[in-house]
What we know:
The strands form two sheets. An eight-stranded mixed β-sheet has the order 5-4-3-2-1-11-12-13. The protein starts with a strand and ends in a 6-residue tail after the last helix. By secondary structure, it is of the alpha/beta class. The chain has helices at 10-14, 24-35, 52-55, 84-97, 116-126, 152-161, 184-195, 212-217, 229-234, 246-253; strands at 5-8, 39-43, 61-64, 69-72, 75-79, 101-104, 108-110, 145-149, 166-171, 174-178, 202-206, 220-224, 237-239. Strand 2 (39-43), helix 3 (52-55) and strand 3 form a beta-alpha-beta unit.
Amino acid sequence: MSCKIIFFDVDGTLTHHKSGEIPESTKRAISLLRNLGIIIVAATGRPLSMCEELKELGIDVFITANGGYVTYQNEVIHKVSMSKSNVKELVEFSDSKQHALSFYTKGFHMNGVQEEGVLAALFETLSLQTYPDTHPSIYEEEIYLLCLFGTDEVVDQYKMRFPHYTFCRWHPYVVNVLETDVSKSQAIVKVLEYFKIHPSEAMAFGDGDNDIDMLETVGVGVAMENGSQRLKEIADFVTKKSDEDGVEFALRHYNLISQ
């Protein structure tokens, strides 16, 4: 294929889906792609502050907060921020119910509610082994994405209380809380427009349900073997697991790297 740009999900795709480390084969592959002049984009649920290791690989285009904040070097390409008054109302409600919330600014914070299911979800989605810091007045910050942790029963309480929000589940224990639509696919469109690249000249790698729209937006979509069944069903190619050199394997399959 003629490929000018590749979008990579991070956790479970660029990183080992169990240890959270970036395999050496993936580091080599990224270096080879950059030497070929192919633009590498990290498209992640992480906030920008958690992307330092990726910057060390030479990546300088970031879709963060699941599409809510997009940057190229020091330039903001696209962002979607939430109403501060609405966020304050939701925070007060969650505090009264003791439900966990996470807030994506350029950094990452939570409301201090701790439970086993939350910590497990943080590791599975962001490779975090500890809870992030709280922020006493987080609603005064510019928030690009807000997530609620809990079962469908918990989420139903918020749907009734906050009908102006959309609640989009992308993990068994995590939902995005949206005022306006935020997605990796919308962010990808903004990046492609910025670099004047046609979607047919783009490739994307992912492992989760929140990567489905991303893979459907580009010319070739690759799912990791350790990914969700729904993602693998819509992918053009299912590569090996992230801890089995899956990124490198797919790039060789498409003859994008040969060394």
